[in-house]
Amino acid sequence: MSGVLGVTLRGMEALPVEVEVEITGGLLAISIVGMPDVAIRESRERVRAALRSVGINLRGRVSVNLAPADIPKEGALLDLPIALGMLKASGNLTQCPKALYMGELALDGRLRRVRGAVPAAFLARSLNIPLYVPSENAEEVALVQGVEAYCADSLAELAMMLTGAEEPKPVPPVHVGEIDEAADPDFADIKGQLAARRAAEIAAAGHHNLLLVGSPGSGKTLIARAIAGILPPLTDEELVETILVRSTLGMDTKPTRQRPFRIVHFTASTVSVCGGGNHLRPGEVSLAHRGVLFLDEYTEFKRDLTESLRAPIEDGVITVSRAAGTVTYPSRVLLILAANPCACGYNGDPVIPCKCSSLDIERYKRKLSGPIMDRIDLQINVPRLTPEELLSFSNKAEAPESSAEIRKRVIKARKIQQERWKEFNLVCNAEVPEKLVKRYLILPEDSRAYLANMAGKLNLSGRGLSRVLKVSRTIADLAGEEEISKKHLAEALMYRQGYGRR
Ligand SMILES: [Zn+2]
To answer: How far is the CA of 377 from the centre of ligand 1 (A)?
Structure first.
């Protein structure tokens, strides 16, 4: 018997799998136990062909045992440790140090990129053993600090490294550049929409969830996308978190400090948004982790989908339970919703008349409630520009302010917040729990009287009131002011009026 360690994935976690190979006399037959049938067939053929490519023709009865038997395994990730186990058991590999090995084999022996190299790197680090991956996985593995990792292009190259015929090739360090000066889309390209631009800046600065209400063609999606470009760059730690999700899904893992932006359409399934399914994979809300999750046409979303998004948006993590087990994924997102102002879409439009009755409009506004609407701090109208306005904006000499300029103010406001909340391990105003709001967001006397008066007039709930306080704190932070003044409160209150008011 000769054990080689490989990995399999459960949700976003890598689990060790021990590959044991035994070869006895007789006609060639390969049996693998501990893996689903389809995966066995495919893996067996790839491994056999790859061994032939390095000049090894297996003889005898080859029994491969994958332990523990009770966890489901993916064939592709285990090709490499199975091949190494066979080389070792057949006396063709004299040394195979204790390490984690992962990789899919091509028929010609090349090592192919696999999903899950980042979770595997975390596992190798916790087991305190080296990790060997295909060269195509090197970049994502290099992002994980404190792991001893090597990469190879092919089975032959790896065998030479293990036996000392070649120097082991450490994964090269990765340089993550700063985010591009010009964002795509950039606020410099968005004409007019001064109120929406302002709300976008506040949303980004304090991490406040935002609702955009406007007719089709008013540019809600463009504004939502542009918000991702004014958020502060990802920190090293946050970057690894986002790459971990992408690595688990086998997606492109090119490291960037640009925050993710994901659109969810109302036709999406709960599994695709929240994660789960047979393979317990993360969903859109986790792909948007540390970035923006955009729900377009919010009023069309089914209630069960918005209901299942409530906890992940509130808690920043999502727990998925299936027959295959229970797993947790990250889901700390800035939520942006977009909706039409009415069923026909043109209530308040400067050109196209609205076909809805006032009753229709009331009924429609009621759709703008529900499980995640009370997680929204800011609401703003995004009017469609008239042709005259579009022309007058394009005639103006100076271009609107760029995303890079806005981002500088956002970063400055975030620094103030981090400093304020550091003892509570919070980074922005929106995250602050209600009991801390009461204790730490204290208003000067005149502001207090003003807010009490307005809260009565607007019939604000306790929760609504604390949202107003948090938003006004962010507005004051953007202005670099220590005290929350009446002016800051008045602006924050403005973002609570209109749709879905509470
Ligand atoms: Zn209408």
So the answer is: 25
Question: Separation of 346 CA from ligand 1 center, angstroms?
Answer: 5
pLDDT for 200:
98
Span from the CA of 369 to the centroid of ligand 1 (angstroms): 18
CB 144 within 8 A of CB 173: no
End-to-end Cα distance, the chain? 68
Identify the CA nearest to 135 among candidates 149, 120, 116. 149
For the chain, domain boundaries = 3-163, 187-399
Question: Separation of 341 CA from ligand 1 center, angstroms?
Answer: 7
Kindly state the helix (H) or strand (E) to which residue 354 belongs, with its residue range. Answer: none
- What span, in angstroms and rounded, lies between the C-alpha atoms of 294 and 149? 37
pLDDT, average across residues 390-396: 70
Residue written as tokens 């990730």?
77
Q: Is the model's pTM score more than 0.85? A: yes
Is 286:276 a contact under the CB 8 Å cutoff? Answer: no
- Residue 111: both structure tokens together: 């090592």
Q: For domain 187-399, give the CATH superfamily.
A: P-loop containing nucleotide triphosphate hydrolases (3.40.50.300)
259 alpha-carbon distance from chain centroid: 9
Residue ranges near ligand 1 (ion) with Cβ within 5 Å: 342, 344, 347, 354, 356
Q: Could you give the residue ranges of the DSSP H alpha helices within 138-187?
A: 138-142, 155-163
Residue 352 Cα to ligand 1 midpoint, Å, equals: 10
* CA of 342 relative to ligand 1 center, distance in Å: 5
What's the gap in Å between 299 CA and the centre of ligand 1? 14
> Ligand 1 center to residue 219 CA distance, Å?
18
Tell me whether domains 3-163 and 187-399 share a fold. no
Q: What percent of the chain is modeled with pLDDT above 70?
A: 97
For residue 477, what pLDDT is reported?
97
- Phi then psi for 352, rounded to 5 degrees? -85, 130
Strands (E), 82-229: 100-101, 104-105, 111-112, 131-134, 149-152, 210-213
pLDDT > 70? residue 502: no
Report the C-alpha gap between 339 and 24 in whole angstroms. Answer: 68
340 Cα to the center of ligand 1, angstroms: 9
Give the Å distance between the CA of 357 and the centre of ligand 1: 7
425: left (phi over 0), alpha (psi -120 to 50) or beta: left
Name the phi and psi angles at 47, rounded to 5: -65, -40
Residue 339 Cα to ligand 1 midpoint, Å, equals 12
Distance (angstroms) between ligand 1 centre and the Cα of 262 equals 28
Q: Does domain 3-163 have CATH number 3.40.190.10?
A: no
Residue that wins the pLDDT comparison between 368 and 112: 112
